[in-house]
# Entry
Amino acid sequence: MSIWQKLFGRKKEVEIEDDEPVMTLQLIVGLGNPEGKYKGTRHNIGFEVIDKMAFDHKIPVNKSKHRGIIGTGKLGGKQVALIKPLTYMNRSGDCIRAALDFYKLSPADIVVIVDDVNLPVGEIRIRERGSSGGQNGLRDIIAKLNTDEFIRIRVGIGSKPPSWKMSDYVLSKFLKEEHEAMIDGIAKAGDAALRIVSDSAAAAMNQFNNRGVGNDK
# Structure
């Protein structure tokens, strides 16, 4: 059960018909790890954003397809697919590659939501292109798509304490005092994805990027 189901109640399960390739579909992909032991960890904040969007927009994400869990519906008047890869973080590109091939889409048709240790908890940053910044999920997506030209929403999870290993930190859970900022960041990331789909990445960057419009270096 996601944090949003815990807060607001369990959403009604809806049977989903088999989806067919459509040319106007936008893929919104939240990165994370699928096992229960990873739920609520910093690395899984992308999954939490998808859960929040699914709850807010009544899009059940409950169908196993393209090596992930997927739900399709309308968002901002556009047809979207919300996706949580089941390939684990380091193989996120496998799921996205499979979905793009099935729907006959290009990397320009995806929005990736991912954790970022270089941002304070709850801050978000939107970019249209750029390097992985050391994030393994983004690194794999760039390798599998052979391009870094896709929109990504980075959600801050805070900096690693000096004495910690990075792998231990990203797989740790948020501290109690970080929960308010974490929930705010998840909500902002969902709102940013909606703005991207209904308007444009540039409009979303103007609204949500604290330091203005720009690209990852």
Q: What stands out?
A: The chain has seven helices and seven strands. The first helix runs from residue 3 to 8.
